[in-house]
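Reading a protein record of the kind used here takes only a little practice. Each token is a code from a learned vocabulary of local backbone shapes. With that in mind, consider the following protein and its fold in token form:
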Amino acid sequence: MSASTVVVVNDHAMAREQLSAALRCEGFTVEAFSSAAHCLGECDFRPVACAIVHHDMEDMTGLELAKAFQVGWLAIPTILLAHATPADTKARAEAGIIAVFGVPPETTQLCDLVRRTVPA
């Protein structure tokens, strides 16, 4: 992983692959995971600059995963993909959620936000 890696966590294989491919086409380094547990267990977080997580995963919600990122030294700006925006604005802010996008996300706007978030 490079120092500006974007982590994608989504338990829907097709959505995960499409989003990862779109980000790679925009020049981002992407590490994709099929579940929150897989991400937490396998990811080297040191080079991660941004995370994009699906909220409605089975093992852990995207908001719960974002909160897990905030434990210790992991202050990862996280973009949440959700069918409906979680109502608790304070919880989203505490979890490092910088934006919420619908499912499927509008790729151009999402890539623009990632570009502003990830260091060159």
